[in-house]
Amino acid sequence: MRDHDSSSQKDLIRLDREESVLVRSNDLCRLATKSSSGWPHCVPVSYVYLKGKFFVPANRASRKVINIERNSKATLLIDEGESKEHGIMIECNATVLYGSGARKMRIHEEGQALAK
User: What are the CA-CA distances from residue 107 to residues 48, 56, 81, 98, 101 (Å)?
Assistant: First the structure.
């Protein structure tokens, strides 16, 4: 498993060919954030990988959004499941999009769903 570190919000996640295939062949990953009690909060989420960034749809009242607003450090894990030891772990500083930024992602996501 290869680790990626995106320590700046301006950093784009660069994937090699094998990682790109893995990311594009999945639509679920695990998102880990730090809860208010200090324990990891790890949940399965859907995602869109677009222009070097991962976008995760979420309700603004969800625990993951609240955690990210308090502490932007997050980890994404995308793998092939329990039977294989192939995956990608991305440590990053997450940003919650509201307003027009979030709206653009919803439109893209709806377009992707219609294309499937």
Answer: 12, 13, 29, 14, 10
